[in-house]
Amino acid sequence: MTIEERLDNLEKKLSRANRWNLCLLVGAALCLGIGLIAWAFGPAPAPAPPAKAALKEVRARKFALEDENGEVRAGLVVLKDRPALVMFDENGETRAALGVGKDGPRLELWDENGKRSINLSVDKEKSSLCLSDENGRRRVALSAVKDGPALELADESGKRRAAVGVGKDGPALWLYDENVKARACLGGNKDGSALWLYDENGKARAALLALKDGPSLSLSDENVKPRAILIESKDGPSLNLYDENGKVIWSAPR
């Protein structure tokens, strides 16, 4: 094909392209005009749908809260018989738990070694607070029951060694040996105060009383029979000694 023929074909292609572009422009203008007319004189657009109201209730069996590293640090779960809120430290150890069971609410706190340190609970009979040592053994127990409050102290083996309480008759302090046998009791009521001392078998062997009529000291044998009684009364002091049958064998004044 000569150069002239190529130029002629090129002119024809350009001419057809120009006509096609002109048609596109005219069509676009017509569409735009029709759209403007429809917008100006047509019906108003439908209003946007209203925003959905915020949820008032969320239901689930478990919620987990994570820190920035994706580690679970708190969880809210429902177990078989109680809901519970549990909190964990950065090592995944349980450090706190709050739950409500059939007996009542309970709060428990653990140390960094996973040993329970504090237990606070409320049930039908009492409310109580227990403190444990680094081995998880209970060392302090404070409770409030219908008859009154009580405080118990335990040794490193978890055995009760001292207790103080306030009942209907008055306050009392108890001391126990390593076998949890009562060895001393100090109490008081409306009639006066008293101190009792017990042997290893839990039998009262000595009693010191301060009553309205005056103080007295009583000493008993292993069968809890009085063997010596010292009394101070308005008539003066007196001392009586008894045999194993309870008979007076010596007294003063005579």
Which consecutive residue ranges, at least 5 long each, have pLDDT under 50?
A: 1-41
SS field, number of helical segments: 1
Kindly provide the name of the CATH class of the domain at 182-254: Alpha Beta
Radius of gyration: 46 Å
Give the tally of β-strands.
Answer: 18
SSE string, helix = H, strand = E? HEEEEEEEEEEEEEEEEEE
Mean pLDDT: 83
Protein architecture, described:
With 254 residues, the chain is α+β, with helices and mostly antiparallel strands. The chain has a domain at 182-254: Alpha-Beta Complex (Outer Surface Protein A, domain 3), CATH 3.90.930.1. It is 15% helix and 49% strand. The radius of gyration is 46 Å and the shape is elongated. Mean pLDDT is 83; it is low at 1-41.
Could you list some keywords that capture this structure?
18-stranded antiparallel sheet; single chain; 15% helix; disordered N terminus; 18 strands
Condensed summary:
Helix content is 15%, strand content 49%. With 254 residues, it is α+β, with helices and mostly antiparallel strands. The protein has an 18-stranded antiparallel beta sheet, with no helix packed on it.
